[in-house]
Write a structure and sequence with these properties.
The structure holds two protein chains of two kinds.
Chain A: H1 13-29, E1 34-38, H2 40-47, H3 52-57, E2 60-65, E3 78-83, H4 87-98, E4 109-114, H5 120-128, E5 135-140, E6 146-149, E7 152-154, H6 160-165, H7 171-187, E8 192-196, H8 198-213, E9 227-232, H9 247-255, E10 257-258, E11 261-264, E12 286-289, H10 295-300, H11 308-324, H12 332-366, H13 369-382, H14 392-399, H15 404-416, H16 423-437, H17 442-450, H18 464-470, H19 496-505, H20 513-518, E13 523-527, E14 544-551, H21 556-567, E15 573-579, H22 585-592
Helix pairs in contact in A: 4-5, 7-8, 11-12, 15-22, 19-21
Chain B: H1 5-11, H2 27-46, H3 50-60, H4 66-75, H5 80-96, H6 123-128, H7 136-140, H8 155-163, H9 176-189, H10 192-205, H11 208-216, H12 219-232, H13 235-244, H14 248-257, H15 265-275, H16 282-311, H17 315-319, H18 331-341, H19 353-359, H20 364-377, H21 381-388, E1 389-391, E2 397-399, H22 405-414, H23 419-426, H24 432-441, H25 445-455, H26 458-464, H27 473-483
Antiparallel strand pairs in B: 1-2
Subcellular location (chain B): Cytoplasmic vesicle; Early endosome; Late endosome
Keywords (chain B): Cytoplasmic vesicle, Endosome
InterPro entries (chain B): Spe-39, Vps16_C_sf
Chain lengths: 601, 491
């Protein structure tokens, strides 16, 4: 079930177990039969912790999605709302509660479970609507960091970047610190903390403070992590804007991976049975789970897409050969052995079939002219070509009314690669965008400006070339098949964030002081004292374990780059990755856009 | 607290005051829970096999994901009688196996009350030592938690308790001094939830000027209040605050944002008109002005065209009924619309394309692209032709396209222009290679043949012969070119 969580250097099953136990405890507090009303954004993350069977064991009989109006009929003793603490959700809950038939018998009891934290603001809101008293249990479920894979944790907090960098609301940082405290309780105190950026500084401060305030949290677990690296997303605004070119990154760019699941167009997955005719093509999108539990996926997810084809064809040969074996099985023993391997072989075959189909879907897009043009422009910007004038391709895309987010990604990328755009260039883009997509987007443009993604060049100096050269962000001789550098994940561009992690491990940040000063926010180092018995005596050749926490989001390509570093033979460091949210350029920009449609109620 | 009474009154917003507390569970209920907890903890000692139980159920049955199950359970709710029966059964059976409020090892218990139990050393202890498990139920909710009201917590303790999700009454903090200490403590804790809660309290109990003044020197708290006001939609207070802070551009944007909530177009137009004078940045000011002008235009055009369409007199509206209203559409879309329905109108009318172009200073490129797309859609090839024809002062005509003819070709092709029209523009593409590519792609044989002839490329021309139909005029043309002895082929 969750075996993939224990496959890495750090056994994350323990974290999942803790989460499950907490959930059971809460459910048992509400004695009797139950119905859960779900905030839809939570079902995905919860699915990674528990499945329906666990809830069922604790008398959850019905489940609904949260929506205004009357709650569905269900003869249960308890109605439990599982929600993020958001005001608009409180309005829906209020509506639900007020419409509940008071005359029905037996009456249903209401409860709220806030994830990850009870919100006084929400409760105040409910109180003002006069329904707060209707809830018997109002509790919180501290699901801060959710294990996604053996080396990956996410808070799945969509708005974290916006809150931190646009609204200066540090609540999500507080949750991040809490999540880190939970990790330390389970895996030991992390002796070394490094960080870069304002938010990183805040989180480190909070951790140190929390530790002081809970003297009991001093535990005697042998530390699993050697180092924690906290990185602000705004230290590296560039990376998420570029199109990811790893297999997993491209799946995410094109189809969007949600809580390890992806929905794909069904055509390529039609069952190929003879005699059925091609008429009944499935219409429902094909839903697949993507994680390292699948052997083949674990092998190809982090490869550059151009290297995926050869692996798939090699696998195909191996599997066909394995199936051929049956002709050579003569004795009963041999046949028996073959049969015993069948399930594994069949799983491998269907896995191969799925990924071949996905690769085909992606290839259709990556070989299109527009994908190529878009990539060319991105790579020009990242290698520092023509970043200071209006770009023809961007203009063309606006004229053809390509999706606004695509335009914004490119313009922001240009701005970041030029340390801001010349006022004239910026004004030109803004005007074209507003005239083509609507003046109301002035609000979105202002948000992007506030976040530092789109701005006029104020200092009159472009720092990007210095940063690029010092950190070797652009590599001309990139090897996509057998990479020797992290730049393979963007076919030439080495993600700045990961370069910082790499340089921290070796030779240390002191070598890049000058560049660190050019990037926003302070950089720092803290040490947490360990009791004498717990200090690590490293075995010869044993790798260090570093937890890299991306505050404001991380992309799959960055994760791939870190995994590449983990696997380097003489790397000496293995990485576990944590983040507030798994993002790509599109979902990231979207989170910064002004919601233009009025709320549905 | 020995503060002068008058001093207290000064800051006490008496008229609006309500104590900031949350009704927590009343005593009876908490007692009930206490007893139930005790029962559960007993069960803990008697029978403790949770892990086994779980393993069986996990491997035993095919399990559905949560989102899958939502659909599943929701749809089955029709047969309520049946489901009640089964639920009863299920209820009783699962009660027998009911798993005890087990181990101390859950997310929240990692922190709760740890400092009260110095003997509780480590997590591994908790896992191995079964004796510790008995603490668990108590760890979850120390009794003291239900007795918050009477106690006299310091600001620091209050904030700390609120951070742990406990209920605290803030009404004890009466003087301005106390309230500010409380606020500073909350800010130091970084928990937005607590900061906001304190701010709500301050907002209620402090005069507005004083609140604003104090927040001005507390940036973090200030940001939280602004975020909070945005979220709760307290627009008026928000604008007052931003004005007080002299953040005029933000005031302007925030006010402008409001137009999105106005559905009625007339009202929206009025509102936008009011926005024009707001202190936007220089470039934004002109955008907002344009936004207003555009909507004003659209309202006039819409009224006019709806009338025309209903009357059924105008051919264009009969032939191509409008799919949607033009209201609230972007400028370029509006231009397209007017090029589609009002192309020939004189510049004086509001709906004429040239008028739009002038009013909004639409660049040539943008204008030509839009007009081309609109006229091509109507298959008005003469208009397309006119769009690119310029006359010099001698009266000679010349073809010119500010967007490059390859783009013209693409747009025409997308609108299914016939080959005769298409090839006319392919011929005008300057770059030979692009021209050849486009001509080949769109089967403009004449252009291909002519280009190869001009390039004196016999090999390519010969090769091209197999791409045209046998016995067609094109084949004949190729043959005649190939047989032309005047041409000095380069190969």
């Amino acid at each position: 079930m969750a075996a993939h969580l224990s496959s890495g250097r750090v056994n994350l099953t323990a974290l999942r177990e803790a989460g499950r136990r907490e959930l059971r405890e809460f459910l048992d507090k509400c004695a009797g039969s139950k119905a859960i009303v779900w905030d839809e954004s939570l079902t995905g993350p919860f699915g990674l912790i528990a499945q329906y069977s666990l809830l069922k064991e604790h008398e959850v009989e019905k489940m609904f999605t949260l929506k205004p109006g009357r709650l569905p009929q269900a003869d249960v003793k308890n109605i439990i709302f599982f929600v993020r603490p958001k005001l608009e959700l409180m309005d829906i809950i209020t509506d639900n509660v007020l419409r509940e038939d008071r005359g029905r018998s037996p009456q249903r009891d209401f409860h709220i479970l806030f994830v990850p934290r009870r919100s006084l603001l929400c409760e105040q809101w409910l109180k003002e609507q006069g329904v707060l008293g209707s809830f018997i249990h109002r509790e919180q479920y501290s699901l801060d960091l959710i294990p996604f894979d053996g080396d990956l944790l996410s808070m799945e907090s969509e708005s974290a970047f916006k809150e931190c960098y646009l609204e200066s609301d540090q609540t999500s940082l507080y949750h991040a610190a809490k999540g880190l405290m939970t990790l330390q309780a389970l895996y030991g105190t992390i002796p070394q903390i490094f960080g870069k950026g304002e938010c990183a500084r805040h989180v480190a401060n909070m951790m140190i403070r929390m530790k002081r305030e809970f003297p009991g949290s001093q535990n005697s677990i042998f530390p699993v992590f050697d180092t924690l690296l906290l990185l602000d997303r705004n230290v590296d605004l560039l990376t998420p804007l570029a199109t990811q070119l790893t297999y997993e990154g491209l799946i995410d760019e094109i189809y969007g991976i949600q809580n390890t699941y992806v929905k794909l167009p069904p055509e390529k997955f039609a069952p190929k049975k003879q005699g059925e005719g091609g008429k009944d093509l499935p219409t429902e999108p094909k839903k697949l789970q993507l994680n390292s539990a699948e052997e083949l996926y674990a092998e190809i997810r982090d490869k550059n897409f151009n290297a995926v084809g050869s692996v798939l064809s090699k696998k195909a040969k191996i599997i066909s050969a394995a199936f051929e074996e049956r002709h050579h099985a003569k004795t009963v023993g041999e046949i028996k052995q073959f049969v015993s391997q069948l399930p594994h072989m069949q799983a491998a075959r269907s896995s191969l079939a799925n990924h071949t189909s996905i690769a085909e879907l992606i290839k259709d897009i990556t070989t299109s002219e527009d994908f190529f043009d878009n990539l060319t422009v991105e790579q020009e910007f990242m290698s520092g070509i023509d970043t200071d004038k209006v770009n023809n391709y961007i203009e063309d895309c606006i004229a053809q009314k390509h999706p606004l987010i695509k335009i914004l990604r490119l313009v922001c990328l240009q701005s970041v690669c030029n340390s801001g755009l010349k006022q004239k260039v910026l004004d030109h883009y803004k005007r074209e965008i507003l005239q083509t997509y609507g003046y109301e987007h002035v609000l979105t443009l202002n948000n992007l400006e506030k976040a530092g993604l789109l701005k006029p060049q104020t200092s009159g100096r472009n720092n990007y070339p210095t940063i690029r050269k010092t950190l070797r962000l652009w590599m001309d001789d990139v090897n996509e098949q057998n990479p020797n550098d992290i730049s393979y994940v963007y076919s030439g561009y080495a993600p700045l964030s990961v370069r910082l992690a790499q340089l921290l491990a070796r030779p240390g940040w002191r070598s890049i002081e000058e560049v660190l000063k050019m990037l926003p926010g302070p950089h720092f180092e803290e040490r947490q004292q360990l009791p004498t018995g717990l200090q690590k005596k490293r075995q010869h050749g044993e790798n260090r374990v570093t937890l890299v926490f991306f505050l404001g989001g991380v992309t799959y390509a960055e994760i791939a780059a870190l995994r590449f570093l983990s696997q380097m033979e003489d790397g000496g460091t293995e990485y576990v990755i944590a983040t507030t949210k798994l993002i790509n350029g599109t979902s990231w920009i979207k989170s910064l856009m002004e919601k233009l449609e009025p709320a549905p109620f | 607290m020995s503060r002068a009474r008058a001093d207290e009154e000064e800051y006490w917003h008496s008229s609006k005051f309500r104590a900031f507390t949350f009704d927590d569970e009343d005593d009876e209920l908490s007692q009930l829970k206490e007893s139930k907890r005790a029962v559960n903890s007993l069960r803990d000692i008697v029978d403790d096999d949770d892990d086994d139980l779980e393993r069986v159920s996990w491997s035993g049955e095919p399990v559905g994901s949560i989102s899958w199950s939502i659909k599943e359970t929701a749809s089955s709710s029709t047969s309520s009688l049946e489901s009640r029966d089964s639920s009863l059964q299920k209820g009783s059976s699962s009660y027998a196996a009911f798993p005890k409020q087990v181990s101390s090892y859950s997310l929240s218990s990692l922190f709760k009350g740890r400092n009260r139990l110095p003997s509780f050393q480590s997590l591994s202890d908790a896992l191995s030592d079964t004796g510790v498990k008995n603490y668990a139920p108590e760890l979850r909710r120390p009794k003291a938690e239900y007795k918050d009201y009477s106690s006299d917590w310091s600001p620091k303790d209050t904030v700390r308790r609120m951070q742990r999700g406990k209920i605290c009454s803030l009404e004890r903090f009466r003087s301005l001094q106390d309230k500010l200490v409380l606020l500073d403590e909350a800010v130091a804790g970084h928990d937005g939830n607590v900061i906001t809660a304190v701010l709500i309290f301050l907002k209620r109990t402090l005069r507005r000027e004083i609140l604003f003044r104090e927040l001005e020197v507390r940036q973090v708290a200030l940001c939280h209040l602004i975020h909070f006001l945005k979220e709760t939609g307290e627009q008026k207070l928000l604008l007052d605050l931003l004005r007080f802070l002299d953040r005029t551009e933000e005031v302007a944007l925030s006010q402008y944002r409001e137009h999105l909530n106005i559905q009625d177009v007339e009202k929206r137009r009025e509102f936008l008109k009011g926005c024009i004078g707001l202190p936007f940045s220089a470039e934004d000011t002109s955008h907002i002005q344009d936004h207003y002008t555009l909507l004003e235009r659209q309202i006039i055009i819409e009224a006019n065209d709806r009338h025309l369409e209903m009357a059924g007199q105008s051919e264009i509206f009969r032939k191509y009924p409008r799919k949607a209203s033009i209201l609230n559409m972007p400028l370029v879309t509006t231009l397209f619309y007017s090029c589609f329905y009002h192309y020939t109108e004189a510049e004086g009318t509001f709906s004429s394309p040239t008028n739009l172009k002038k009013t909004f200073k639409i660049p040539d490129k943008q204008y030509v692209l839009t007009a081309l797309a609109a006229r091509a859609k109507l298959r008005a090839w003469d208009d397309v032709d006119a769009l690119f024809t310029t006359k010099n002062w001698l009266g000679y005509t010349k073809k010119k396209a500010p967007i490059g003819f390859h783009r013209v070709v693409e747009i025409l092709q997308r609108n299914n222009a016939p080959v005769q029209v298409l090839q006319e523009y392919v011929r005008l593409v300057e770059d030979v290679e692009t021209r050849l590519n486009l001509a080949t792609k769109y089967k403009c044989h004449d252009v291909v043949i002519e280009t190869y002839r001009d390039l004196k490329d016999r090999i390519q021309l010969t090769a091209y012969k197999c791409k045209v139909e046998r016995g067609s005029a094109e084949e004949e043309k190729i043959n005649s070119v190939l047989n032309n002895t005047q041409i000095r082929w380069k190969n």
